[in-house]
Amino acid sequence: MDENPINNEVMLQKGAVSTLRGIFQSFSYVGPAADVAILLLGTVEFSLIATPLAIIIAWLIYGLWMITPYEFSKFKSNAGSYYAYSAGATPSGTLGPFALFSWMGENFSGQSFGILGVAGFIFAISSYISGIPYLWIAFAAVITLYMFVLPYLGIKISTNYMAITGILELLVLLVGSIIIIIRLGAHNTIAPFEFPAGAIGSFFFGVVFSIVDFTGLGTVTTLSEEVKDAKKKVKKSLLIAWLLAGLALIPASYALVTGWGLSNITNYAASPDPGLVVFRNYLGPVGFVLLIIFTINSYFSYGVSKTNAVSRIWYSGARDGVIYPKFMSKLNAKHKTPGNVMMVWLGVSFILDLILGLIYGPTTAGLVLLTMAGIAIIVVHIVSNTSLTLFSHNYLKIKGQSSILLHYIAPTIASALGFIVIYFTVESNIATYIATPNAVNLAYLVIVIFSVLWVVIGATLVTLYYKYRRPKVIANAGIYDAEVDD
């Protein structure tokens, strides 16, 4: 485990990413302003006035999930992140292909949040724009091109952009929320932080939606090979990004729900742009315009963060010879970025989003794909949680660095919570289709079934192939550590 088997002519740019840039790689992936504008609708629909409590619980659950990358980042700096951690957890490397294939399911579906989400948001603002046929395709093409160009030009350029706009986005959400809360005056109440009586099942399904809001907080680990002094600073970036995500979304959820009016909360999710309505009512035209600007930028910065993360994951897999072809391990000589991966991934993603967007419209297509993204990434977390326990048992125990609480108990609880979230997702979509068997609900049901088959059957078959046909490949997978001398 102390040798690097990699000898590429061009390497990722070591030491290019500071702690601040790492923080906003993760924070931008969350896309808090875009969450406030779109994803929060799903939480409010089920958790109603208790939405702020649902957000808090989801944030704490995700914090528990962040223990695994936090702990692994102390011992390995590899762009493969959860894939590399899983592969290196045992001498055989068996969990590597399973994690990588499962993550591929999220990679091909989660990008719809940016590519299709921005069109859905703009359409919600203007009925005139939404009435122009196929205009959303132009929006999708523009953001896809942006998602390629900025990350391709270098990790410093893309992370600088995310840090600057991320700080401004956080300030707009936090200051705006505080002003709304102050203007609410006597209408402020603790009711949004109380468990709803008689609706616990619906409330916790709202928590499921809220968990998706925090997806991506661990992606600074994909920049591990480029972070300066990674084994100390990646864990710091993870912790601060998690705290900032809570700071951005928890006060905002309270301000929006209470500002909308608790007695009228059932109409919140029915509105195409309730976040904008509340900001306009309490902050006037300035607050309204600022939220629009930073929500649109939130989709773009999410897209840049997504490209950074996915390109490094695939690059790491291709470098190891796992799933992805070797040409994807080639880096641009000038910018030191995985340009081949970016072109292939974004090309396939755009075509997939285009097909589903033409069938269901951009907003519905995006939400359908995000259902698969949620299931797939939770499975990746479950695999990596298991890997942390195995890594601790196989390697840390003999060094006296094993922790019962952090390496055994916490990952087990985190995985159990992940299974619960998947169960609620599957059960809810089945029940919804049975109750209302229309085309859209069928799409959700099909994507849920496909997602489960992808991670259970697909990932298992890929794992068995490497285990029995290419055992030496996975035995060496995930070994590379950027902070070990070549």
What does this entry look like structurally?
By secondary structure, this protein is mainly alpha-helical. The chain has one domain (19-475): Amino acid/polyamine transporter I (Up-down Bundle), CATH 1.20.1740.10. Helices cover 73% and strands 0% of the residues. It is built from 19 helices and no strands. α3 crosses α12, α10 crosses α14 and α16 runs antiparallel to α17. The radius of gyration is 22 Å and the shape is globular. The model has no long low-confidence stretch (mean pLDDT 93).
Give a short overview.
The chain has helices at residues 19-30, 32-47, 51-65, 67-72, 82-87, 95-110, 112-115, 117-125, 127-130, 135-152, 155-184, 200-213, 230-260, 274-320, 339-360, 362-396, 404-435, 439-469, 471-475.
Reconstruct the topology from this structure.
Elements: H1 19-30, H2 32-47, H3 51-65, H4 67-72, H5 82-87, H6 95-110, H7 112-115, H8 117-125, H9 127-130, H10 135-152, H11 155-184, H12 200-213, H13 230-260, H14 274-320, H15 339-360, H16 362-396, H17 404-435, H18 439-469, H19 471-475
Helix pairs in contact: 1-11, 1-13, 1-14, 2-12, 2-13, 2-14, 3-12, 3-13, 3-17, 6-16, 6-18, 8-10, 8-14, 10-14, 10-15, 11-13, 11-14, 13-14, 14-15, 15-16, 16-17, 16-18, 17-18
